[in-house]
Specification:
Blueprint lengths: L9 H23 L29 H37 L1 H16 L2 H13 L11 H11 L2 H14 L3 H8 L4 H9 L4 H24 L10 H10 L2 H4 L2 H29 L1 H26 L1
Helix pairs in contact: 1-2, 1-12, 2-3, 2-5, 2-6, 2-9, 2-10, 2-12, 3-6, 4-5, 5-9, 7-8, 9-10, 9-12, 10-12, 12-13
């Protein structure tokens, strides 16, 4: 179990602390702040007592909107990451383990998804879904944005999982399970997936990062959710409200900072998980330190000579 756990170092500690602080902020502060849609405050107040991050052009409290928007972006990110992971597991694991015609068909669909430019595809799907009849309020909701981003962001993870599944299907314990008459589904769930837990966790984190950034991009372009507040919709409101031109930096800097901090924190955690997937990454710093000690020893010997 010790070998399967990430090595606790500086980057993992910083990543976990950053994500934890942002999560606590998103869960606790909305309970204490005022209504983020309230326009009873003076417009474009700079940060100060009473409004620690100022107000928007409509008089909304930026701190309240930031807390609720962070919670909305986390919801979109986690849901979109889970949808992306489920599709990646289906296409990647089945293709890698079964092989043959199934592998060719599933990887053909995966490769088609890979070669299509991601952002234009998401924009087209989001615009079409939002104008589709019969969806009602669901068309411009955070749930629909998360589903769209999840459905379009699974291909890269599927390729990685397929490669690992192809490697695991040749192992002795998998062959023994097939000889014992175990079914395909049981072998995948019992023999394959437990050995891919670190890689699956890394792909989930990657999916969350992709979805959070994707939602921010869609919302900034005006294709995000309209019935809820996210970090992306805050940036869109700041852009349409000419926050840059009026010098209201407190309107757009905080949501951009939260997006950057969340992406950096999740990336640091992902780097630690990469060391579990590839032990050579864990051994690399030790090798560098050994080389430095060797060079220092040689330098001291030459100096004494």
């Amino acid at each position: 179990m010790r070998e399967l756990m990430p090595r606790w170092d500086g980057k993992l500690a910083i990543g976990v602390a950053t994500v934890a602080l942002i999560t606590v902020f998103a869960l606790v502060v909305p309970l204490l702040a005022q209504d983020p849609r309230s326009s009873a405050n003076p417009a474009l107040l700079p940060p100060g007592p009473g409004h620690w991050l100022g107000t928007t052009k409509l008089g909304n409290d930026v701190l309240a909107q930031l807390a609720v928007g962070t919670r909305g972006s986390l919801f979109v990110g986690v849901l979109g990451g889970l949808v992306s992971l489920v599709l990646a597991l289906f296409f990647g694991i089945l293709a890698g383990y079964i092989g043959g015609v199934v592998d060719e068909v599933l990887m053909l669909l995966t490769n088609i998804n890979l070669v299509i430019p991601g952002l234009p595809l998401v924009m087209v799907i989001a615009a079409y879904v939002q104008n589709a009849p019969g969806l009602g309020s669901l068309a411009r909701s955070s749930l629909m944005v998360a589903l769209v981003l999840g459905v379009t962001g699974w291909a890269g993870s599927a390729v990685v999982l397929r490669a690992q599944a192809r490697s695991l299907r040749t192992r002795e314990y998998v062959a023994a399970a097939r000889v014992a008459g175990e079914g395909t589904l049981r072998i995948i769930c019992v023999e394959i997936l437990p050995n891919l837990v670190p890689l699956i966790a890394a792909q989930l984190i990657y999916g969350v990062i992709f979805t959070v950034l994707g939602e921010a991009g869609l919302s900034y372009l005006g294709l995000g959710p309209t019935g809820s507040i996210t970090l992306g919709t805050m940036l869109n409101d700041a852009q349409t409200g000419q926050a840059v031109g009026t010098g209201a930096w407190w309107w757009f800097v905080p949501p951009g900072t939260i997006i950057a901090a969340l992406g950096a924190g999740l990336s640091l955690v992902n780097f630690a998980l990469d060391e579990v997937v590839d032990p050579r990454l864990r051994q690399a710093p030790q090798a560098v330190r050994r080389q430095r000690r060797s060079r220092a020893a040689i330098t001291r010997e030459e100096a004494s000579a």
